[in-house]
Amino acid sequence: MLGGNGAWALHGTDDPAAKKILNDALNLMRSQQPQAAASLLQQGLMQFPRSASMHFELGNAFSDCHQFQDAINEYQIALNTDPPFPEALLNIAYAYCNGGQNAMAIPWFQRFLNENPNSPRTQEVKSQMLMAEAADLSSSHRYDAKKLLEEAIAINPRDTRAHFKLARIRDELGDTQGAISEYEQVLEIQPNHSAAVFNIAGCYQSLGQPDKAIAWFKRYLQNNPNAPDAVTVQNMIVKLHEKEREPGSDPQQPDYYADVLEHHKCFRWTPEHLPLRVFVRNGYGTPGFRDSFARALFDSFSEWSKASQNRILFVYVNRPDQADIDVSWTGDPYEIRQSGSDVEQGICLVSYADRSNMPFNRIDHATVRILTLDRETHHPLSDDDMKKTCLHELGHALGLHGHSTNNHDIMFFSVSPTVWPVLSKRDKATLIRIYEQYPPLMLPQQLGAIEN
């Protein structure tokens, strides 16, 4: 992000009082107090409403506060008040990118290039525009995104963001070793890039090399001892050590069926229970709850049903005493913890029938409780993180009793940025192995929120 260094802080501002406000605001931003800077600049604009520089720096302060739409509004005022203002124009593009609206950023990058053909920033901006184009592509166009990111790196080889994004794309395309190489490029340029260190650990998990994964997770903790997710990473190391000693946990296998067995028996619902009856409790009033969370839950039921090839279907009931699966929401992290090493965003408690004389472990009832706040930061979850949590806990409810050691599977044993909010091929294959003897059901699935 541009701005915050005073290099262009005097657009149309000659008044000494205005200069003092700007300098004080810049000092506040340098000392990482963007909210205080924003407040000071807003007061200053009451006195100097035509100061393009104040609007520009207020945009920078809002950006630092992640108020990207407010930042864009201020940059546009600065641009309209005292044109040309190329830095304001460019920061509009960056604010759109940072706010996740990459398609909106592209015409602003192009306008900057058109209006400033001799700018020393031309190569950088071209690279950033290619990255925005890549980010705007859907997951079904990952190869196209990969090509755009490679073009961006060819233009600007030391852009850590381009290398990082290319690493993520390579990982998604199955080129895990190529992803590691890109993350290592990031570390050559920026040795303390914590996300790259973390993701290299995840890549080694995917490759079935827990010893190397543990070493990289330890490096992450050494570099970030006070990181908000430090406890989670420590627990992941514990889990990795446990998984090292377990048979049949190769993350490269086509499924992880062996990991969800207990004494060579799988867990599943009997045909008499199907379709499964579901009761979903009202989440309103739960800290952090949004309507989109309920949609993520119902979408997750639908996706697991499709993964079973309609061997499992769901109907929604109005009373919990009628339900096979009872789902509730909580804003309290302690309500989803069974032990000190838990690293999930929810909990699934499953009851079983007498298992001694049966060829499989028969599920009788499942209670799912989902945390609406991030377990580490206590901030509201993103919709993607909620979808991952719902898919994961419902997987347990359907009989995926254990966890995967592949950090791309939804049933991976920990919260991880390498897990996407979709079922992997291994997730689907494992569920099919559990229910492969069941015929597909013909009852159409009924989706919709049910309140108590």
Kindly describe this structure:
Strands 1, 2, 3, 4, 5 and 6 form a 6-stranded mixed sheet that branches. The longest helix has 17 residues, at 291-307. The two termini are 47 Å apart. This protein is an alpha/beta fold and 452 residues long. Strand 5 and strand 6 (361-371) form a beta hairpin. The chain is elongated. It has a domain at 257-435: Collagenase (Catalytic Domain), CATH 3.40.390.10. 50% of the residues lie in helices and 8% in strands.
Give the termini separation.
47 Å
Q: If helices are DSSP runs of H or I spanning 4 or more residues, what is the number of helices?
A: 16
Helix/strand-derived category reads alpha/beta
Q: Biggest sheet, open or closed, and with what strands and sense?
A: 6 strands, mixed
H-E string: HHHHHHHHHHHHHEEHEEEEHH
The H-level CATH homologous superfamily of the domain at 257-435, spelled out, is Collagenase (Catalytic Domain)
In what range is the share of β-strand residues? 5-15%
Rg over C-alpha atoms, rounded to the nearest angstrom: 26 Å
CATH fold descriptor of the domain at 257-435: Collagenase (Catalytic Domain)
Mean pLDDT: 86
- Oligomer type: single chain
| Unreliable stretches | 1-10, 445-452
Which shape, going by the Cα principal axes?
Answer: elongated
Query: Count the strands?
Result: 6
| Second rung of CATH, namely the architecture of the domain at 257-435 | 3-Layer(aba) Sandwich
